[in-house]
Design goal:
By secondary structure, the chain is of the alpha+beta class. Helices cover about 35% and strands about 20% of the residues. A 4-stranded antiparallel sheet has the order 2-3-1-6, covered by helices on one side. A two-stranded antiparallel sheet has the order 4-5. Strand 2 and strand 3 form a beta hairpin. The longest helix has 20 residues. Keywords: RNA-binding. It holds the Pfam family RRM_1. One of its GO terms (molecular function) is RNA binding. This is RRM domain-containing protein.
């Protein structure tokens, strides 16, 4: 539990420093989203060697707890690794331990970045925000 609290306060401190440097302009939604991500057991792993596959990723992170899924993201056109992936743990505690231990470490000759994964934001379409294009409103 200590690791989770330490990670939480580290992230909170980072958000507060960002808020101060931007004169309080960091949106509350951004702060809440960051805190919410810290309660996740899903990790983002960046900077992976091109040769890393799902099993290699799982093996590298299984020392911190039960990995329920490990996935290297592949390019649709070439079928090659895009250099990042995701690891899911059975608990937040195991995920926190992995972040603390693996962030900045060498994996296959490359330094990997490990952080709590954030949900992908939905892409806005042109219909969002009442976009009307070239329509005239003087009918």
């Amino acid at each position: 539990m200590y690791i989770i609290e330490m990670a939480f306060f580290n992230k909170l401190g980072s958000l507060m420093r960002q808020s101060i440097s931007q004169k309080g302009q960091v949106p509350v939604v951004s702060m809440l989203n960051s805190i919410r991500c810290m309660s996740s057991s899903r990790l983002f792993i960046g900077g992976l060697p091109w040769s890393t596959d799902d099993q290699t990723l799982k093996d590298a992170f299984s020392g911190f707890g039960e990995v329920t899924e490990a996935r290297v993201i592949m390019d649709r056109e070439t079928g090659r690794s895009r250099g990042f992936g995701f690891v899911h743990y059975d608990s937040v505690e195991n995920a926190s331990e992995a972040v603390s231990a693996m962030d900045g470490q060498d994996l296959g000759g490359r330094t990997v970045r490990v952080s709590f994964a954030q949900d992908r934001r939905p892409q806005q379409s042109y219909n969002d925000n009442n976009y009307q294009g070239n329509r005239r409103s003087d009918n």
